[in-house]
Amino acid sequence: MRTLSHIGIPSTEKMEDMAYIDALKVYITDHAASPNKLEFLYFESDSPMHHLIQSRAHVAYNVEDIHTALEGKKVLLPALDCGNMIIAFIEEEGVAIELIELK
Fold first, then answer.
1. 61 in the Ramachandran plot: left (φ > 0), alpha (ψ -120 to 50) or beta?
2. What gap in Å lies between CA 40 and CA 88, rounded to an integer?
3. CATH code at position 82
């Protein structure tokens, strides 16, 4: 079962208080600080993230088991351990979908 986590929106500018994720070469805002659950992303030019993630907004969902949630899906970014969570991106209906398993 999926529950809404946030909406991710690519940005052309770095914003204050963005956190940097070195492995993905992306800066992100804290969606928990947004009343609308918005996360803004600023990508470095050599970010390995799929162009669909870099060019369009994505929807992010919390899932209980990310590996089960990835089965049979078109994977854009395989499961990646980010400390307190594991994230992955899939494509559904032409849109990037982020899946998050909280540890």
1. beta
2. 17
3. 3.10.180.10
